[in-house]
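User: My collaborator sent over this chain with a note saying "see what the structure looks like." That's all I know about it. Can you take a look?
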Amino acid sequence: MDVKVEHNVPATMRDGTVLRADVYRPATGGPYPVLLSRLPYGKNLQVNTSHLDPLAVARSGFIVVIQDTRGRAASDGEWQTWTNEPDDGYDTVRWAAALPDSNGNVGMIGVSYYGNTQWTAALAGPPELKAIAPQITWSEPHDGLYSRGGAMEFALNTSWTLMMGVDTMMRRHAGDPAGLGKALGALVADIDQLDTSVYWELPAGNSPAYQRHGLRNQDLGFEHALRDPEWGAVNRVAGRHAEIDVPSLNLGGWYDVFSQGTLDNFTQARAAGRPANLVMGPWTHEVYTGQIGDVNFGTAAGVDALGFRGRFVDLQNAWFRQWLTPEAEATGPGLPPVLLFVQGKNEWREEQEWPLSRAVDTDLFLRADQGLAFDAPKADEGREAYVYDPADPVPTTGGPLISATGYRAGPLDQAPVEAREDVLVHTSEPLTEDLEVTGRVRAILHAATDAPSTDWVVRLCDVDEKGVSRNVVDGILRADTTPGEFAEHAVDLWSTSYLFRAGHRLRVHVTSSNFPRWDRNLNTGEPIDTATDFRPAHQDIAHDAARPSRLVLPVIPAVS
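Assistant: Without extra context I'll predict from the sequence alone. Here is the result:
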């Protein structure tokens, strides 16, 4: 079909504020269902809309609406992160349903922030909203967005906030070219120096960079959420899926910063009795090909292949048709309830559920002499110690993250991390047969520190036949402690689907930092938004029969 495009089409919200959208529609015929995306990054920037493929989707028989959220790009009003998205989402869905040539049914599409605007619109409940397809977005904002395990998602928060400040400066200095040039120059200088200086500034919970550029925490800074856990709760989906009466198609990546949120949205929607589908690939937040980090998972791993089922956007279109145009004929086999990419095996697998009920929780114990085994430790296997110094934190090396360009996401060689004295490394014997781990991984540490507060970071790695160690999953726990006393700490490593091949070895890291992905615990117990002093912490990890530090792996039994 030929496509007509209208730019900056106005929609008036309930308070009179005008938001603007680009509308892509088939040039003839109709009526057509509507697919709506609401984003704060600029609807005219191709980098923000390329994955939506609006021209191709419109050619296939949809009206596609891409709207700038309130106070961003072409839309009027004042932007306050998350605050207006439920009401604006409700009003925009109703407006989009009444567009010329619409059949009155609206679906929503988009990733990350504009994955969450789908959930918040669905919570508001506009009657014309019939289905949503959120990708790589969160469920509980304190589990991957604002923070994780009590530690701040520091690289994500800081880099995102400064980048969002560009549009703020454009608005603040409209009509003042000289002032705009000066303000943007200073802001971009800080963005370019994130790795070398800005990330290192204290206090982490009230960034000096925000103060330099006049960026208000309540508008742009995630740190506000750490001081007031209910601030921004409007974007919380966790625990609210029973309020949402629309089907969802959830897409995520094992190395995405919101991977667990994607899984949780699916499981909670299904638990609430709502139709839901799940697609989980090996991807990061920004890369959806088969080449992720240092690993080539194969051509079939890409989002445009899905094991040669076809392009995800085409499968998504077919999925939407069943909800938005029920009278249309099915155009293919459709998606299974769950489609998982099993890393290591590098194959897609169809499942009927998540988590998999056949997974068996299996303990993997830290042992003496840097060992790792499925057999429990003996009484005399003792403990290990290291010193964590916030002035010299363990550098972020791969994993699910969003950061400045100096830090890559995905599975990376962990040799630089494993060479450090403040990282305990435990390695198993070579596996005699394949071992599949599919589900949520957790660690139980018996640990002590001489600090009133510290962090525990645990990472699971795969060591290949050549001795190269690459990260699979990890997690962090910020713990207030009684100095000198051992306590049991549970660290959530989130979920994966990974086949450890025969001949490979499993490896576990235990440490106390992963910077700048997570902010440094300064080991003083002072509030994050004021603390500037720091001290080293002396850490002890026990792994004997009475205090068995271990990972709990969801192992899929081998089929005989």
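A starting point for your reply to your collaborator: The two ends are 52 Å apart (CA to CA).
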